[in-house]
Specification:
By secondary structure, this protein is α/β, with parallel strands linked by helices. The chain folds into three domains: 19-332, Glycogen Phosphorylase B (Rossmann fold); 341-483, no CATH class; 486-807, Glycogen Phosphorylase B (Rossmann fold). The chain contains 35 helices and 24 strands. Helix 12 (342-354) packs across helix 15.
Length: 843
């Protein structure tokens, strides 16, 4: 797999190029110059790159808004059902080239800007990543919004307009440091402030029950605090620009931003205290919840965006339909994880308290309208809140939850009379260690559909976290395996591979990803393999430049690029990868003259600010990198790179360059994953456990084109039942024992030999995530990867087949399944069947 020379591409592998429309080109250039002068207030001669970016973005936004308003009017005129997607995270990244591509204007704008003396690539870098998410959850929400627009589904995304996105990660002396991510520092040209769309969101206070004069009791909430939610809309363009939806994000403000009476006394800080308290809600994604104040702020955030969103959709429905009894026929609300699960209590409050609906009718509407996507099998990740905090912050909602729980427990008692353990298990209120509200149980009970995000995850939900609830409400759990938008993760991230696919599979592959299957016919073609390798080499050169610029590490693009990019967490097992790296380093040191496969181990990801052990793993990665990269005895045989501040834009550089995709989570703990799909689509082979969507990737790409290792989920459970001590496996594995010893005795931290003693202790005696227990299987799988890499042509064939067989993992397929099975909304066009590629091939 040596470097490749730049040869001319055979004609049969060249895509057709459409000539630029000169009239349209002149129109775009003129529009950009007008925006530069009238919206930015600059002459071209004095404009900065950021001025040009903003002028171009506003020019594009004008064209997006035209189609947006048309789409919206058409859906309202047709009386179509709408989807409302509630998510605390939307990791949308940069929108400029994404929207240009979907609108079909990328070549025009590139040519227009070039004629004006500005490069599109340079302007793209002026746009900050909108890091309004932590990882897979937020990126999935962004993919889903784009796919809903592509499929012509009228939809609103609802979330929070955070002033600062997920923190900016800086690595200083190997240590993660967190700094504010000022993504709004230069404004946001994509959003449209809707200051007329404002709703009051209430907190605290007291509850009063009165007689309404008709023999019914009416509950009145007298809140103690009011916060205003103000809407900001961002248009989300579907493929070919045929349909545009809105992402509506809420910003918080106080009704009275300044207490003039207090200000005039000279107490300037206290005068704006109410505004500061309100603005804290939208200040930062995921405030540290180690403190009581942090936990309260998190709950305030969740209720704030849920309340504003439901008030908004109810108002919209009443405006178009006039009657809330038909709400479920015209609105489908999808809760992305447990964060929006307060929607159940809030919708009941709106229907019962504000619109005088009877409880049973309101419950039927709520249940038929709402559905819930679960993203975790970790019980600790299913949110719970102290009853005391709920009582103080949301007293009316706690009453509603109690009443929901009362009816629910009556059902449980009728199903299993006298079974107090079962009753305690399914209750919304956890009484075991201080009374807490279980948001996962609330979401399950209040939704008509609960879906997992991979086949394995959905089945494990029935057996683990929701076992008892599934018995009480059979048939509610369904599976919707995650997907990714190929427009972002193939066409934009990997344009050279896209050109090769267009030439090989036809232009229609841009509209129908299942046409990727046509690549199979070329998987063994030597000329095509050469072109495929040239694309990969080009992308690896780009990533090698980034590694060199950011880290000063020289990465050989002819080496195997071994990539693990995801949130740093113990169950995702970056530590397993790192221990194997240490063992490999030691082996190379022992036999430097051996024919080793050169590797570049590439890590990227952020650890939660309060997750100390994950941050220690980041430091260990950087300490190992410092030792390995400066060891002249091994040269370029092994390099380690931790790329800081991982975000969508960095992923768009890393993923097309990856040769090996690390998907090595502890079996039974990863819900799905989407990075695994992106990497495989771009021609990386996967090394992974039978976990999450790895199983479906194996089923689609073929077991011979993926490297599976390690324990199954059942075997992990069995192993844990025997205890967490790993002395037995360490004693049998010299490679593992030696690597652990080096880590725990300070071989990589000579300035502080005891720095990683806790890591060594965990690997030896607290192996909850079976890092040590899975090590030998992983190490052998990695040596198998070496053998495959040396085979050259066989590696290329497997990489091509990975790309060819990934069409099923389009988020368009996922959204169509949601539309058919959960939301009951039609989709535009005649999309491919949701049957997997392997099933279609067998047929």
């Amino acid at each position: 797999m040596a470097g490749l020379s730049d040869q001319s591409v055979p004609a049969k592998f060249q895509p057709e190029n459409t000539p630029v429309d000169e009239l349209a080109l002149a129109d775009i250039k003129s529009a950009i110059l007008v925006k530069l002068r009238l919206a930015i207030g600059k002459e071209a001669a004095f404009a900065t790159k950021h001025d040009w970016y903003k002028a171009a973005a506003l020019t594009l936004r004008d064209r997006m808004v035209h189609r947006w308003l048309t789409s919206d009017k058409e859906s309202y005129d047709a009386g179509r059902k709408r989807v409302y997607y509630l998510s605390l995270e939307f990791l949308i990244g940069r929108l400029f080239t994404d929207a240009l591509n979907n609108m079909g204007l990328l070549p025009l704008f590139e040519a227009a800007l070039g004629d004006l003396g500005v490069g599109l690539d340079e302007l793209r870098k002026c746009e900050p990543d909108a890091a309004l998410g932590n990882g897979g959850l937020g990126r999935l929400a962004a993919c889903f919004m784009e796919s809903m627009a592509t499929l012509g589904i009228p939809a609103f995304g609802y979330g929070i307009r955070y002033d600062f996105g997920l923190f900016r990660q800086v690595i200083s002396h190997g240590v993660q440091q967190e700094y504010p991510d000022e993504w709004l520092g230069f404004g946001n040209p994509w959003e449209l402030p809707r200051r007329e769309v404002t709703y009051n969101v209430y907190f605290g206070g007291s509850i009063e029950t009165v007689d309404d004069g008709k023999g019914r009791k009416q509950v009145i909430w007298h809140p103690g605090e009011t916060v205003e939610a103000v809407a900001y809309d961002t248009p989300i363009v579907g493929w070919r620009g045929q349909h545009v939806n809105a992402l509506r994000l809420w910003s918080a403000r106080a009704p009275d931003p300044l207490r003039l009476d207090v200000f005039n006394t000279g107490d300037y800080v206290s005068a704006s205290a109410e505004q500061a308290r309100a603005e804290a809600i939208c200040k930062f994604l995921y405030p540290n919840d180690e403190s009581a104040a942090g936990r309260e702020l998190r709950l305030r955030q969740e209720y704030f965006f849920v309340s504003a969103s439901l008030q908004d959709l109810v108002k919209r429905h009443l405006h178009s339909d006039g009657n809330l009894r038909g709400l479920a026929n015209k609105a489908a609300v999808q809760m992305n994880d447990t964060h929006p699960s307060l929607a159940i209590a809030e919708l009941m409050r709106i229907l019962v308290d504000q619109h005088n609906m009877r409880w049973d009718a309101a419950w039927q509407i709520t249940n038929a309208t709402l559905s819930y996507t679960n993203h975790t099998l970790l019980p600790e990740a299913l949110e719970t809140w102290p009853v005391e905090l709920f009582q103080r912050l949301l007293p009316r909602h706690l009453e509603i939850i109690y009443r929901i729980n009362e009816a629910h427990l009556d059902r449980a008692d009728a199903t299993r009379p006298g079974d107090t353990a079962y009753r305690a298990s399914v209750s919304i209120i956890d009484e075991t260690s201080g009374r807490r509200v279980r948001m996962g149980n609330l979401a399950f009970i209040g939704s008509h559909r609960i879906n997992g995000v991979s086949a394995m995850h959905s089945e494990l939900m029935k057996e683990t976290v929701f076992h008892d609830l599934n018995q009480l409400y059979p048939g509610r759990i369904t599976n919707k395996t995650n997907g990714i938008t190929f427009r972002r993760w193939l066409m934009l991230a990997n344009p050279k591979l896209t050109d090769l696919l267009r030439a090989t599979c036809g232009e229609a592959v841009l509209d129908d990803p299942t046409r990727l299957i046509k690549l199979e016919a070329f998987a063994g073609d030597a000329a095509f393999q050469q072109e495929f390798r040239k694309v990969k080499h080009h992308n690896k050169l780009a990533l090698a430049r980034v590694i060199g610029e950011k880290l000063g590490v020289q990465a050989d693009p002819s080496a195997l690029f071994d990539v693990q990019i995801k949130r740093i967490h113990e169950y995702k097992r970056q530590l397993l990868n790192l221990v194997e790296t240490v063992a490999l380093y030691q082996a190379i040191k022992d036999e430097p003259g051996k024919d080793w496969v050169p590797r570049v181990k590439i890590f990227a990801g952020k650890a939660a600010a309060s997750y100390r052990y994950a941050k220690l793993i980041i430091r260990l990665i950087n300490d190992v990198a410092e030792t390995v990269n400066n060891d002249t005895t091994i040269g370029s045989k092994l390099k380690v790179a931790f790329l800081p501040d991982y975000n969508v834009s960095l992923a768009e550089v890393i993923i097309p360059a990856a040769d090996l995709s690390e998907q090595i989570s502890t079996a039974g703990m990863e819900a799905s994953g989407t990075g695994n799909m992106k990497l495989s689509l771009n021609g990386a082979l996967t090394i992974g456990t039978l976990d999450g969507a790895n199983i479906e990737i194996r089923d689609n790409v073929g077991p011979e084109n993926i490297a599976i290792f390690g324990m199954t989920a059942a075997e992990v459970v069995e192993r844990r039942a025997k205890g967490l001590d790993a002395s037995d496996v360490i004693n049998k594995s010299p490679n593992l024992g030696r690597a652990i010893q080096a880590i725990e005795t300070g071989a990589f931290s000579p300035d502080d030999p005891g720095r990683y003693a806790s890591v060594g202790h965990a690997l030896r005696h607290l192996d909850h995530y079976v890092v040590s227990a899975d090590f030998d299987s992983y190490y052998e799988a990695q040596r198998g990867i070496d053998t495959r890499w040396r085979a050259g042509s066989a590696w290329s064939r497997a990489a091509i087949l990975n790309t060819a067989r990934m069409g099923w993992f389009s988020s368009d397929r996922t959204i169509r399944e949601y539309a058919d099975d959960i939301w009951g909304v039609p989709v535009a066009g005649d999309l491919p069947s949701t049957t997997s590629l392997q099933a279609r091939k067998a047929t």
